[in-house]
Amino acid sequence: MFRRNFGRKKITLSTAQTSISMDVVMALPKKICALCEEEFELKPDKPGFANHCPTCTAFEMEEAAANQGPKDADQIRYEAEVNEARRASMKNLLYRKDS
Length: 99
Ligand SMILES: [Zn+2]
What we know:
Elements: H1 2-27, E1 30-32, E2 39-41, H2 54-68, H3 70-98
Antiparallel strand pairs: 1-2
Bound molecules: zinc ion.
The site of zinc ion (ZN) has 8 residues, from helix 2.
């Protein structure tokens, strides 16, 4: 009795899964990526923005992951210092030109 019920349940489940995946394939909307303007199929399980293609989303996720690390905060501070030093030397050059 239990065995029969289990078997019946399994069949119902797989049938439901098949119909769901078929619906998904048929309903996939075509979208134009807002970043690279490439056409892509928007999958319901796609991470990130709905108007960004999988390639751009993967790139964005990589960037976001990289920005989360404490190493990058140091990198930003370092770049700010370099920019400031560059600006200071530019100022020196300009002043030298003027005088
Ligand atoms: Zn894209």
